[in-house]
Amino acid sequence: MSRGPQDGPNGSEPSAMPDNGTERAVCCGAVTVAFPLTFMIIGLVGNMLALVLVVRCYRAKENQQKQSFLLCIFSLALTDLLGQLLISPIVITVYLANRSWDTIDPTHNLCIFFGFSMTVFGLSPLFIASVMAVERTLAILTPHWYASHINVWVTTMVMLGVCLFICFFGLLPVIGLGEYTVQWPGTWCFVSTSNSQLTRNLVFTSIFAILGLLSLMVTVVCNLVTMKAMVSRCRNKVTMSHSSKQWGRITAETLIQLLGISCILLICWAPLLIMMLKMIFTNTSLEHCKGFPLDTQNPDLQEICSVFLTAVRLASLNQLLDPWVYLLFRNFLLEKFCQLASAISKCSTNQWKERSIALAEESRQTEA
Q: Which residues belong to any copy of the G-protein coupled receptors family 1 profile domain (predicted)?
C-alpha cells in the first residue's frame, strides 16, 4: 500500500471544520510534511537499488535456475516503486494544503485515482508474494516438472494476469460497485462504508479483505511446505556434489528472502485485513470519525478509529520494507554475518579457555 495512510496525522487539531467544507480529522500531535517526504525517499532508494540488483543477478549465469523467482522480485520492487511515485506526491501535496483535500481536489477525480491506487498497490504485493511462494514450492517438490513447464515466459504471463485482475478489481468502485471517498483522517481515499451505496461498498470491502487473507494463507502454507521439503532433502543427502551444493545455496537464499518478505506481509497486512472483516461483521463505520474531536466521542468508537488508523499505517510500511529484505537477505551478507558470528563465538571460546587455564594454574599454585 502507498504512503498515504502511513503519513496520516498524529496530533491534536481544533475541532472546527476546515475551509471549503472539507472534514478534517482531529488526531493527536503535529506531523509535518517531513514525515511523508522522508518515507518516500527511503522507499524510492530501496526499490531502485533492489531493481538494479535484480537485473544484475538475472544476467548472471549462476542464477539461471532462479530467473523466474528473480522476475517475481523485480515485479514486486517495480509495483512498490510505482506506488511510491504515484501516491506519495499526492500525500505531500495534501500536507502542504493543510490537509484540506477539497482545496487540491475540487472535482473528486484525484480521490478516485488515489483510491484505485491504494487498492492496486495494496493487493499487488500480497498476490506477487503468493506467486513467489507457489513458484518455490513447485521448484522444490516437483523439480523435473518445474524445469519442463515453468520458465520466464510463463512467469511473465502469470504476473501480467495478476496485474490485470487487480486493476480490474480496483476499477469496480469506478464502474458502480462502491465509491472512493476521502477517509479519516483526511489524507487518503478508499471505499466508503456509510452512504447510499452501503451494500455495494461492503461487498467490495469484503472481497478486498478476503482476497488479501487468502493470499497470505497461500503464502504461509507454501512456505511451510517448502521448508519441510528442504529439510528432508538436506537430511537425505549427506554428501553432495559441487553443483548440488551450489543449487542448495541458491535455494536457501531465495527461501530466506521469500520468508522475509512473507513475514513482513503478514505483520503489515494481517491486522488491517482482519479488522476490516471485523468491522463489516459488526456493522461498524469509520464515517463517524470524520469532523469530530476524538476526545468527545464515544470511547469505543475512539478506540476503533485509532486502532484502524494504526493498522492502515502498518500496512503502508510494506512498500518501504519489501526491497530491503531482498537487499539485506543475500548470500554475500549472510556469509559475512555468519563469519562475524563465528569469529565472535571463537573469540569468546578462546577467552573462556584462557580464563579456565588461568584458574586451574592458580588452583594448583594454591594447593602447592
A: 46-326
